Amino acid sequence: MTTPTTLFEKLWSAHEVVPETADRPAVLYIDLHLTHEVTSPQAFAVLRSRGLRVRRLDRTVGTMDHSTPTVADELYGRVPIRLESAARQVREFERNCAEFGVELLGIEHPDRGIVHIIGPELGLTQPGKTIVCGDSHTSTHGAFGALAFGIGTTEVGHVMATQCLLQRKPRTLAVNVEGALAPGVTAKDLVLAIIQRLGVGGGTGSVLEYRGATIRGLSMDERMTVCNMSIEAGARAGLVAPDATTFEYLKGRPRAPAGGAWEAAVEGWRGLVTDPGARFDREIAVDAAALAPMITYGTNPGMSVALDQPVPARAGDEVHAKALEYMGLAGGQTMLGQPIQYVFIGSCTNARLSDLRAAAALLRGRRAARGVTLLVVPGSQRIKREAEREGLDRVFLDAGAEWRESGCSMCLGMNGDTVARGAYCVSTSNRNFEGRQGVGARTLLASPLTAAASAIEGRIADPRAFLS
Amino acid sequence: MDPIRTIRSRTVVMPRTNIDTDQIMPARFLTTTTREGLGRHLFADWRYDAAGRPLADFVLNRPESAGCAILVAGRNIGCGSSREHAPWGLADYGFRAVVSTEIADIFRNNCLKNGLVPVVVDEATHGWLVEHPGAEVTVDLERQALVLPDGRAVDFPIEAFARYCLLNGVDETGYLLSQEAAIRAYEARTGK
Ligand code: SF4
Q1: Which structural domains are found in chain A, ordered by start?
Q2: Count of alpha carbons within 13 Å of A205, Cβ hemisphere only?
Q3: Is any atom of ligand 1 closer than 6 Å to the C-beta of A408?
């Protein structure tokens, strides 16, 4: 009898070109390399200076998302891009892709979007693959049972040149989630609670596998939201074993296997599970039924609290005090009712169609409060078109929102979509670091439902009040 | 890359925990397409005021920090974004080693690829370093030890191959390229 193994171990061993030894890391094969304008220019420069080519163009796909404008006129060149350095970066990426022959879903391409949204949407992301990108939220793709992780630019160069990476085998951590999420409590709230529990460094060196009945019951969009934020617990990657939900999502996607190849692929994917009795290096259990909508109050994603619970005081903890000072909040206060100036619904965490539908359901027939800037940025051009077909754009526009072209936008403010100094922004993104959304910006991470409810009230609001 | 054997320097201490890469290199400086010149943007939002003037009480702006090559930081430095611009900025500024009780995965990897030695030490040693900013210490990569001013050597772990590359100035791209035969064999075996 063979020893039972975890899903991670199966994925790892299937990609070992050369296994690791005490003195040498493994040479790990990469099936899919996604690349974008921000973390690739210096890698292309290395290829150029060494006279190398991109080894497997058929496994490399580029898009533009981080520094691209979200205002249509700017994006499509009818007016100049506000940030000259961003414009230069976009042009350089176009040149690099053309020179090296890399497929680019560029500015005008109907499939362009945030790199972690379009991979799954196009069916490029598939169970059993190794997927990397010069971006930490590559963990998103783990929702399909792919081993997916973020890399630095030097490693982007490694993959371009050799289709491989030098890697040490990470540890495994099972996150067992049982219990039904209450109405108004979403996958975002679940993952914020998991990060709070693990801490922002709790997953360091580990690959998380999300397991249990709650995870099995989540849609692919929800699983992606959970896996997306694995990195916020410091984890190398997050995984969910593929199942019927996964296969149904992928079937018929443009880049998914088709015809006879589809059946064969699904047969292979069915084996991508953790065997009964396989051991993880560590396990934690989470009771989803006990969760309420969550919101962050501090300056890292682990600093969150249930909407109706007080912000921890932690007397004597200087780091905590500094974070609260930056946020202009006090220990002991509840977050509910805190006035806000911005709401951002977007990012690779929560800008898929189901997220937009959830926010629109609350905003339909209502308006954002005066003094609140509401920015809705779909995760991809496909999502934008589908949302418009359903009339969601009208709901947002009627609510006083700005409805933009897809991109990272206010998640990191690289393209000039920023929050004013000192202002509060309820954001469906994944990072509340100091200055993340603009110098001095105060980010409050929450679900699309909480974001929409807060936009309506002009203060942090409980979405459950809108559901009854 | 130049070989690294020992780094002897006074320390700069930033005891905050969870210093993320957005702090080390804010996103607005990521539109660059080269790796040079990022040192001046290092910790920009902590280092300069809104008008771009240096803030006198930020540690890097203090005269005694000039020329220091070893950064001692709180637990879990480098968490967050995978941007290699963070280690590029640190290295361009003149740092050669980062010391903490825990260093985030991607950042640690990125440091190793840019001649910045990640040094993970125990709480007690870290506590001593935090209480003695400016102490003259040595990162001895050959011995895999951090040598304190009193001569005490504290071992630190470092991945064997990364250490070999740093000690010998070997670049990993070259090593991976030398694996071409194995890569081809893998592709043939798996039908990739
Ligand atoms: S949406 Fe935000 S987190 Fe996602 S890839 Fe873009 S910048 Fe990164």
Answers
A1: 7-167 (3.30.499.10), 296-467 (3.30.499.10)
A2: 8
A3: yes
Other Cβ atoms closer than 10 A to B125: 20
Contacts of A372 (CB under 8 A, 6+ apart): A340, A341, A342, A343, A400, A455, A458
Ligand 1 centroid to residue A311 C-alpha, Å: 27
pLDDT of residue A80: 86
Tokens of A442: 């105060």
Of A343, A327, A417, nearest in space to B28 by CA: A417
Predicted TM-score (pTM) of the model is 0.97
Q: What is the mean pLDDT of residues A299-328?
A: 95
Over its length of 192 residues, how does chain B's per-residue pLDDT go in tens digits? 789 999 999 999 999 999 999 999 999 999 999 999 999 999 999 999 999 999 999 999 999 999 999 999 999 999 999 999 999 999 999 999 999 999 999 999 999 999 999 999 999 999 999 999 999 999 999 999 999 999 999 999 999 999 999 999 998 999 999 999 999 999 999 999
Pairing of strands B145-147, B136-140: antiparallel
Mutate which of A229, A430, A436, A437 for ligand 1? The one with the most ligand atoms within 8 Å of its CB, which is A430
Is the CB of A410 within 6 Å of ligand 1? no
Question: Does the Cβ of A224 fall within 6 Å of ligand 1?
Answer: no
CATH classification code of B6-190: 3.20.19.10
* Annotated domain spans of chain B: 6-190
Residue A457 to chain B, least CA–CA distance (Å):
31
CB atoms within 10 A of CB A382: 20
Residue ranges of B 3-62 with Cβ closer than 8 A to chain A? 16-18, 20, 22-23, 26-28, 30-35, 45, 50
Long-range contacts, stretch A321-324, CB < 8 angstroms, 24+ apart: A322/B16, A323/A298, A323/A299, A324/A297, A324/A298
Residues in chain B, total? 192
Distance CA A369, CA B87 (A): 42
The kind and range of the H/E element at B46 are helix B44-47
pLDDT tens readout for residues A326-344: 999 999 999 999 999 999 9
Q: Do A201 and B102 touch (CB under 8 A)?
A: yes
> Counting Cβ atoms within 10 Å, is residue A238 exposed (0-12), middle (13-18) or buried (19+)?
buried
* Mean pLDDT value across residues A343-369: 98
A158 touches chain B (CB under 8 A): yes
What is the per-residue pLDDT for B103?
97
ipTM of the complex: 0.95
DSSP letter at B54?
B
